[in-house]
Amino acid sequence: MKVLIQRVTQANVVVNGSEVAAIHKGFLLLIGIERGDTTEVADYLAKKTAHLRIFEDAQGKMNLSVLEVGGQILAVSQFTLAGDTSRGNRPGFETAARPEDAKPLYEYFVSCLRGYGIDVRCGVFQAEMLVSLVNDGPVTFMLERR
Description:
Blueprint: E1 2-15, E2 18-23, E3 26-32, H1 39-51, E4 55-56, E5 62-64, E6 72-77, H2 99-115, E7 119-122, E8 130-144
Parallel strand pairs: 3-6, 6-7
Antiparallel strand pairs: 1-2, 1-3, 1-8, 4-5
């Protein structure tokens, strides 16, 4: 499982010309579910995401979590994070979980984040989405766990 975290001042998702989700200060998460990922992996990454200290404190040091700043999360499923670009010029997706396996784990991950008291908004699973964001910093981190 891979979670690309982008610290944002705002982000939104549009599907078929309509905005389906929007946040202000917080994280835009791009979430890639891979074959073999488990709820234990999702638990670990949700806890890590909720407690990752990448917001600045009064001294300008990255020392505060999304919980501590009252931030929101916009969670977007993105199977292309599981893409393998090591061979040739066309990505392979053999490691990506099948949609029927990925969706429940994605939903579980989101429920874990909500369990920490975070306001989580979501894109639409398997939809063509237009994702807009203002990356704050820019600050971007990749979390992975197998």
